[in-house]
Design goal:
This protein has two domains: about 160 residues, PUA domain-like, CATH 2.30.280; about 140 residues, Trna Endonuclease, Chain: A, domain 1. It is about 20% helix and about 30% strand. The chain is elongated and about 70 Å long.
Length: about 325
């Protein structure tokens, strides 16, 4: 992960855990008096408020468990009505977060902790610290609700701490009390915001998000296969799964509601991809109701006979694209 130099001269006087108003933080770091994402010359300020986020059915905070790199703070993007986006006027804040390294800006995170006593009632915020987007998966896209209670796509940034941060228990995302799998629209996926053929990206976005050619190919393949299934009159969705004891939900690939088939889409036919698809499908299947869902992997070409044999042995169908058509469709 490439660090962004801390170029703000006054940053040293404000340490993680420091509590102040937005006005004081603005004097130190720039940014305006309102909004959740506030870009300035050297910084992008991210303001989180657990009370407000709860009204929208999501939580900003530390997710349970750590990987081999360290902790993750999930922060929901800007936009209260309709899908959250990166482009246009509504996507200015979100694109500022995504492009912070390219623009030489620091991500600085603040959490609301109360109000100033007295008539002003100005909000107080705790400075959590300096962050950078996770280099492998900078954001995920989930289904949520907007101000009007309509379903929409929500951008959730995955923030990695840089240096010391103020990690307090009240900023942890609550873990799920029960396990639940709900159906959501199939375009609730990171790839739909990245792949240029979906018309929701720019050359700048493609250069910043570190997705591989295989992942772009998987996005296009998913789109083509959705069209194939819908052309046959099938309903296509995907599962968003909350697992008891975990804070971050899982999101599967395509699910054919009509034929009760769970598909995993891969951008190449390498052994590693086949193995990953097997693990993902077996994991998701545990939460899909009713029981008896069939499993399949969709590839951009035909895998080796050895990999096809492995999938056959596990009763997982092999689907692959051949020209404009798909072979092995269940």
């Amino acid at each position: 992960m490439t660090d962004v130099a801390d170029t703000t001269e006054t940053a040293g006087s404000i340490s993680p855990g420091y509590v102040a108003t937005r006005a004081e933080f603005a004097r130190a770091f720039g940014g305006g008096p309102q909004g959740g994402i506030l870009p300035s010359e050297n910084n992008v300020l991210l303001y989180a408020d657990h009370k407000i986020s709860g009204e929208y059915g999501y939580h900003d905070g530390w997710i349970s468990g750590e990987d081999d790199i360290g902790p993750i703070f999930e922060y929901t993007g800007a936009g209260r009505v309709g899908h959250q986006v990166f482009g246009g006027r509504n996507g200015v804040g979100n694109s500022a977060v995504l492009e912070h390294v390219k623009k030489g800006r620091n991500l600085r995170l603040f959490v609301a902790v109360g109000k100033v006593p007295g008539p002003s009632a100005a909000k107080l915020h705790r400075y959590v610290g300096r962050f950078q987007l996770d280099s492998e998966e900078p954001f995920v896209v989930r289904q949520g609700i907007d101000l009007n209670k309509n379903d929409r796509k929500v951008i959730v940034f995955r923030l990695r701490p840089i240096g010391s941060v103020a990690h307090v228990d009240e900023d942890d995302i609550p873990v799920a009390e029960t396990t639940e799998a709900v159906l959501v629209e199939p375009d609730v996926a990171t790839a739909t915001l990245i792949d240029p053929e979906f018309g929701e990206t720019t050359e700048s976005l493609r250069s910043i998000v570190p997705h591989t050619r295989a992942e772009h190919r998987a996005a296009r393949l998913s789109r083509d296969f959705q069209q194939e299934l819908r052309g046959r009159g099938h309903t296509v969705q995907r599962f968003q799964i909350r697992v008891e004891g975990n804070s971050a939900p899982l999101v599967s690939d395509l699910y054919d509601v009509t034929d009760h088939v769970l598909y995993q889409v891969k951008g190449n036919v390498r052994r590693e991809s086949v193995r990953m698809a097997v693990g993902q499908l077996l994991d998701y299947r545990r939460y899909v109701k009713p029981a008896g869902v069939r499993l399949a992997v969709v590839f951009p070409g035909k895998p080796s006979e050895d990999m096809v044999a492995l999938l056959d042995e596990l009763k997982i169908a092999t689907i692959y694209q051949s020209g404009p058509a798909f072979e092995g469709v269940i």
